[in-house]
Protein 1
Amino acid sequence: MKRLVLSYPLSITTPVYKDNPPVEIRQQFSINKGDLFNQFFINTINHNGTHIDGPWHFNPQGKKLSELPIDNFIFTRMKTLDIPKSDDELITKEDLEPFANRIAGSDLLLIRTGFGKIRDSDSVRYGNRNPGFSASAAQYLMIFESLRAIGFDFISASAAQTLDEGIAFHQIVAGTGRKDGRFLLIIEDMNLNCDLSGLNIVYAVPLFIEGIDSSFSTVFAEKR
């Protein structure tokens, strides 16, 4: 069994979305400076780096991540869609429709656009010209009852230059206004630059912090 890490470590060089504040990491105590132990301050918003958007991020009646059962973050029926997109381009219903048979029955959809390849080399472009999803994509994805989460290789489901569409996408998949409680988790800024064939199980478990909408996650998979 092989294991793959599908998330990025959080660091001071982590790309940020638009004008979000960067990650700050400061050492408080240092063995090298004569202290008995190492200890750090970490200052960051909860949407920097690989993280999971919970329903409460855009749905005032939605649950916070720490309120969801742990089974919500374990997936066994993954499908990967390669949908090439570049700066500012949106993933639409029309992009997804040819994959209907692959989406049906899946619980986690991994969407690889190729945009993640510039994350290390051009973090400003990665955070300001990212692809995103349209409202039509959200409406289409919510049709598939088995689907519980989507993850992708760009910084946010909202294209930085097309915020209206991104906001609508987030609201729809967060289940805003629905009476059945249905929602999709969104795993943003994933590392999908690897062979994703043969995945058996994916764990996308957030850091449980009470009282917040979304949280950081180390995502890893087991494959044959």
Note: The mean pLDDT is 98.
Protein 2
Amino acid sequence: MRWKKDELEQYLSAKEYIDTMIIPLLPFQLSQDSDVTKDAFQREVLEAFSTELEQELTGRVILTPTYNYLKTADKQSEIDRINTWTEDMNSQPVNHVFFTTFDSSWKKVEQAVPGTLLWIPGITDGEIDSKEMQRLIRSQVEQVSELIRTYWAE
């Protein structure tokens, strides 16, 4: 389920079956002109990936709004902020929290985040609507959904 009114209404009536949250992590930095278009493209790809992943795992997952942060932000501050998000989620019947990101800097602090970090190697350029890009996203979704299912089996 996505963060949309009608889907959240469904969630409220069936939340005992929804035990997994997917939280996309997305950096941006408007002050770095050289990265603005790359960052915007990665947002599009992460959004497409996350939406397709949610559709692949429909019935057990909820896709939260994207967690946005500045690239130059202190990681510890962001970890504290993420902890606040997940503490609020703990009031729900959530057993699994997955963070999806292209930002490899999270790998250094992944033990500090309250969930499982799924770092996806970044796609920095291309056409989001191209068949090649759609195949690449689909392939990544298939691999990540298999991984998430292994957590459910534990």
Note: The first helix runs from residue 5 to 14.
Protein 3
Amino acid sequence: MSSGRKQIDTVVIVGGGTAGWMTAAAISRLLGGVGLAITLVESAAIGTVGVGEATLPQIRTFNRMLGIDEREMMARTAATIKLGIEFRDWGKPGDRYVHPFGTYGEPVEGVDFIQAWALANALGKASAIGDYSLPIVAAWADRFAPPGEGGQQQPYDYAFQFDAGLYAAWLAELAQGSGVVRREGRIVEVIRDAESGNITSVLLENGAVIEGDLFIDCSGFRSLLIGDTLETPFEDWSHWLPCNRAFAVPCANGGEHGPYTRATAREAGWQWRIPLQHRVGNGLVYCDAFWEDEAARDALVTSLEGEAGGEPRQLRFTTGRRRELWRGNCVAIGLSGGFLEPLESTSIDLIQSGILNLVELFPGAGIAEADQREYNRLMDLEFERIRDFLVLHYVANQRDGEFWTAMREMPLPESLSEKIDDFRRRALLPDYADGLFQPVSWISVFLGQNIVPEGWDPRAEGIGEAALVETLDGLRQSYARDAAAMPVHREFLRMSGAQYAGASS
């Protein structure tokens, strides 16, 4: 019996860049056996944002699914290792902490480590929380070894800092090798079905018409399909995340690569540093209501560690997301569906989540409303949980200045306010069944920005002070030894065959 739905045989991806070519490579490789015809339309005359150079560990899963060799990818994209994100001056000026891709300590006599640490800290017997995380200790020592290779006891993961343009170009090769057809040209009209409102084709400037059953909008901030054509409402979150502009510029590396990304709080926003093998990516995210464009640009340029690789490029944006990322026969992936500032390197991860959710719910037999609802539900959760986590960085500050005072005093999403209260009261943490930021992430920011538990699991008091201190000291010393045994990060790149041909030694 027919469902009345139109079978999906042709997919049209509008826009290239990281989002477009990640989507094309994934669909062609993961759904290659279902006979889809995939076309990607991009125009060389339309630039891409191209600042998403820092990733999260989930990118390793994505690469494995596509059959990508990790060392080859690193060599092709000038990649460095990333063990976490360092935050400077976010609580008070002079504060420094790392959000690691790993854990803190290990359970102490059956009690969660954070509960045992909270008691030891109240007794004045605990070291800084970062001393109990191997990836943090290794990152600050500029060292790295793949998990398990050196006999390390504490589990951890890692991600990459890479040239997003080189990554997209490589994925374009892989996708076209898997049958994706690239069409060059600027879209001048989007044609819709008069009855259903669905998109039927796009018209290029050269007169070519490209038809499709499913359209994927990877057009970036232009949001050509999901926004301009389908007029999907945009939910503005700038009352929680008011930064709305950025300057970005690469520069020469003035020191070690550093196996971590850095985010430094500034006058009315923050500055990123992403070290690659051949250069350093820099940018300043700010709110123009508190910092004039020229002053923000000058602050970025004068803080660079090496010679700038051109003029800073300005980006303008509004934080938020489309109310639906799948509407009709159009799915928005990447900036076309929403934007959250890259404070926690979530831009590429949101692209990846959008792709993999679409693959799992792919409407081969025709688009069903149930699949659309589930896709939108999953992506809403991703956006909202990342939003709350980003807002936490801003509200948990003790800095002076008009911008930081306003951030500290703003009304919070109820979901975030409860999380802060729970942690301060008794070190309770959100533990999502799925989602990006798990308990270790929240611990990092809470403690790094001086939200300290005032209570703890009463079972921690049964451990005994002497045993508690001995256990914590032993863990701290073992992580220091494990990190010291790792090779220097730059040497690891050389030894592992991951060195970029264009990088200086």
Note: The longest strand covers residues 245-251.
